[in-house]
Design brief:
This protein has 126 residues and is mainly β. It is 0% helix and 48% strand. The protein is built from no helices and 11 strands. Strands 2, 4, 5, 6, 9, 10 and 11 form a 7-stranded mixed sheet that branches. Strands 1-3-8-7 form a 4-stranded antiparallel sheet, with no helix packed on it. The chain is globular, with a radius of gyration of 13 Å. The model has no long low-confidence stretch (mean pLDDT 95).
Amino acid sequence: QVQLVESGGGLVQAGGSLRLSCAASGRTVSSSAMGWFRQAPGKEREFVTVIDWSGFSTYYADSVKGRFTISREYAKNTVYLQMNNLKPEDTAVYYCAAAPRLTQTLRAGAGWYDYWGQGTQVTVSS
């Protein structure tokens, strides 16, 4: 069983920064690609970024490229999302997700991600 718990969300002004954390448990997590998604009110859940099992390969949505950075710390079984230069359009609930089936190619489709956290709210004021 895989459990994912996000933290680090909050209210920040435009231009500010936040770092989200995703604490993971379960035997497959260390060998899984890990991703972040977000869902704004009235909108569908959208892909933000993913990191492969090795930590060397990453993939970002165009909307966050150059502003967000994903990383993982194996000793703590934790994945991070550093968000800089935040914009009001980044306001959403952010979800961490694990994709144990993604072993070669990183993918943005939510269907590849088998385990999800409960989400953490990020609100960016203008």
